[in-house]
């Protein structure tokens, strides 16, 4: 079975040692997913696997046989940018932009986790069925994605406008 990347089937690489990140960047020329630390510490390589956020630098491509991978290039619809992409623009959620694709993919995955009621380290009620995405909660949940330019306030504002407000409704 092939991997499905942004809705299109892709053959697995011949070498089982190829990381998902290298398949995306070098094999498929999807340069939106960034190679930052290549050790899983910065989050620049975050993509969605069946809707869950993963660090593609730490994953082998063969692990995702038959699964759906979404990169930043696959988030835009026919109507234009994904709402979170537009919110990053509106709230200056980037400076150099290097971390932005990973931040956006991570935020989408984070929202799905919160909708499922998964608590974080700062969640007050671990048994609550619904997570309230306060600023502190968002900062904790996004702490695996680093921005060296210091655009964290704009990033959290963008996520608050889209993801957190959507969950409050």
Automatic annotation (TrEMBL):
<keyword id="KW-0001">2Fe-2S</keyword>
<keyword id="KW-0479">Metal-binding</keyword>
<dbReference type="GO" id="GO:0051537">
    <property type="term" value="F:2 iron, 2 sulfur cluster binding"/>
</dbReference>
<dbReference type="Pfam" id="PF00111">
    <property type="entry name" value="Fer2"/>
</dbReference>
<dbReference type="InterPro" id="IPR052914">
    <property type="entry name" value="Aldehyde_Oxdr_Iron-Sulfur"/>
</dbReference>
<dbReference type="InterPro" id="IPR006058">
    <property type="entry name" value="2Fe2S_fd_BS"/>
</dbReference>
<dbReference type="GO" id="GO:0046872">
    <property type="term" value="F:metal ion binding"/>
</dbReference>
<keyword id="KW-0411">Iron-sulfur</keyword>
<keyword id="KW-0560">Oxidoreductase</keyword>
<feature type="domain" description="2Fe-2S ferredoxin-type">
    <location>
        <begin position="1"/>
        <end position="75"/>
    </location>
</feature>
<dbReference type="InterPro" id="IPR036010">
    <property type="entry name" value="2Fe-2S_ferredoxin-like_sf"/>
</dbReference>
<protein>
    <submittedName>
        <fullName>2Fe-2S iron-sulfur cluster binding domain-containing protein</fullName>
    </submittedName>
</protein>
<dbReference type="GO" id="GO:0016903">
    <property type="term" value="F:oxidoreductase activity, acting on the aldehyde or oxo group of donors"/>
</dbReference>
<dbReference type="InterPro" id="IPR012675">
    <property type="entry name" value="Beta-grasp_dom_sf"/>
</dbReference>
<dbReference type="InterPro" id="IPR001041">
    <property type="entry name" value="2Fe-2S_ferredoxin-type"/>
</dbReference>
<keyword id="KW-0408">Iron</keyword>
<dbReference type="InterPro" id="IPR002888">
    <property type="entry name" value="2Fe-2S-bd"/>
</dbReference>
<dbReference type="Pfam" id="PF01799">
    <property type="entry name" value="Fer2_2"/>
</dbReference>
<dbReference type="InterPro" id="IPR036884">
    <property type="entry name" value="2Fe-2S-bd_dom_sf"/>
</dbReference>
């Amino acid at each position: 079975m092939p991997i499905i990347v942004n809705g299109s089937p892709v053959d697995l690489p011949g070498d089982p040692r190829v990381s998902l990140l290298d398949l995306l960047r070098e094999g498929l020329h999807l340069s939106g997913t960034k190679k930052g630390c290549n050790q899983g510490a910065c989050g620049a390589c975050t993509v969605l696997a069946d809707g869950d956020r993963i660090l593609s630098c730490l994953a082998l491509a063969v692990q995702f046989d038959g699964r759906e991978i979404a990169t930043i290039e696959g988030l835009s619809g026919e109507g234009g940018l994904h709402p979170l992409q537009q919110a990053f623009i509106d709230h200056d959620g980037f400076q150099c932009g290097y971390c932005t694709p990973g931040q956006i993919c991570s935020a989408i995955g984070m929202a799905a986790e919160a909708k499922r009621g998964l608590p974080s380290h700062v969640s007050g009620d671990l048994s609550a069925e619904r997570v309230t995405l306060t600023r502190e909660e968002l900062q904790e949940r996004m702490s695996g994605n680093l921005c060296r330019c210091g655009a964290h306030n704009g990033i959290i504002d963008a996520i608050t406008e889209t993801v957190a407000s959507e969950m409050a409704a």
